[in-house]
Amino acid sequence: MEGLASLNTATRVAIGVGPSLLRDKHFAKSSPPPSIAMINHNSPRLPSIRAQQSETSDGASTVTAVSESPENTLKAKEWEVGMLQDEVAASQGIRIRRRPPSGPPQHYVGPFEFRLQNEGNTPRNILEEIIWHKDIEVSQLKERRPLVTLKKALDSAPPARDFIGALRAAHARTGLPGLIAEVKKASPSRGVLREDFDPVEIARAYEKGGAACLSVLTDQKYFQGGFENLEAIRYAGVQCPLLCKEFVIEAWQIYYARTKGADAILLIAAVLPDLDIRYMVKICKMLGLAALVEVHDEREMDRVLGIEGVELIGINNRNLETFEVDISNTKKLLEGERGELIRQKGILVVGESGLFTPDDIAYVQEAGVRAVLVGESIVKQSDPTKGIAGLFGRDISV
Ligand SMILES: O=C(O)c1ccccc1NCC(=O)[C@H](O)[C@H](O)COP(=O)(O)O
């Protein structure tokens, strides 16, 4: 057991015993706020022991220390980091867990006894399911295209265009919210929206109808989208700046999106802890991308308003955990002091989801949005160009 005392505080906390991360004195004193990045992976050296896991009659897992190899040390550390990530996220009200809960690796190092809080390996809702799947997808993609090769590919990517500028210009030109028109074949809540789905044709129709920007779903499994759609639209000569509509969990995806021609990327506050958002917003700026930071409730809005550098906030009227859509959500989140702070900071707000009629557009505009993100109501129209005119109650291309 010698050497266990040298485990650092972060490691001890990650193991899930004793005080939680935020109550831990070590972190309470720390500034900036606690983060995964603060774990010192180099010191101290983990002891050469390993753990054996057994289960007691009431279902609790007991871990005892035995010997250990470098490979097992790494697995154990990965598990610890996962635990720590979930703990930080939960402290910010994030309900989405990054990965299915699991016990520690077989050779876990630690003299501690703990109870497995595994509610089963079933995601609690669709958003969580998407994230768990994305985690696997991204790890596989990263193996094929490591960050170092992506960084090299940035040089040959088409230049990033001004996404926020295009929205502001459209609003100034029409007096209506700038439109981000979504190239969306299917969704978990609505199934297939359009059978004859030609992404480039739809993108051109949106542009002709007066869209300021386009949103392209790149998730394959749940939305039948793909990065090939983003690339095809970009190389087809469509001028509207493009939002990569992804479920971002790692900065690697931002680089990947840029190499595929994205001008903006979505960051979902229900999934990403503050520190990740802050860090990702910086990466976006460095790459010339706009970050559309999406919120759904007051707590998420308050978190995002506290993050420096956020210029574009999307209020999603769809609850991504329940699929419930309510456009009064936009109004609720822009009332009072929040709305005032948003105006002071000069943040552009996008009203997202569930917008079908000119009245809906007028309602969210009245609430304070200067842009809207619309998919279903326009993609379903046989002529999406006319669909846009129908949505706004007039031709917005002139
Ligand atoms: O649309 C869904 O069913 C969905 C489910 C889970 C996560 C995200 C989902 N949609 C993403 C969006 O928020 C919308 O595609 C976007 O705002 C456009 O919404 P709409 O105009 O209602 O198609």
From TrEMBL:
> From the UniProt record, which GO molecular function terms apply?
indole-3-glycerol-phosphate synthase activity; phosphoribosylanthranilate isomerase activity
Looking up PROSITE patterns in the UniProt record yields: IGPS
Which catalytic reaction applies to this protein? 1-(2-carboxyphenylamino)-1-deoxy-D-ribulose 5-phosphate + H(+) = (1S,2R)-1-C-(indol-3-yl)glycerol 3-phosphate + CO2 + H2O
Query: Any keyword Lyase?
Result: yes
- Domain Indole-3-glycerol phosphate synthase residue range list: 127-389
* E.C. numbers: 4.1.1.48
Q: What class of enzyme is it?
A: lyase
InterPro entries assigned to the protein according to its UniProt record, in alphabetical order: Aldolase_TIM, Indole-3-glycerol_P_synth, Indole-3-glycerol_P_synth_dom, Indole-3-GlycerolPSynthase_CS, RibuloseP-bd_barrel
Q: Which SUPFAM superfamilies match?
A: Ribulose-phoshate binding barrel (SSF51366)
Show the Pfam families listed in the entry.
IGPS
Keyword tags = Amino-acid biosynthesis, Aromatic amino acid biosynthesis, Decarboxylase, Lyase, Tryptophan biosynthesis
The pathway entry for this protein reads as: Amino-acid biosynthesis; L-tryptophan biosynthesis; L-tryptophan from chorismate: step 4/5
One GO process term, biological-process aspect = L-tryptophan biosynthetic process
Segments carrying the region annotation (Disordered) are 50-71
- Designated name of the protein: indole-3-glycerol-phosphate synthase
| Name of the gene encoding the protein in the UniProt record | LOC116215295
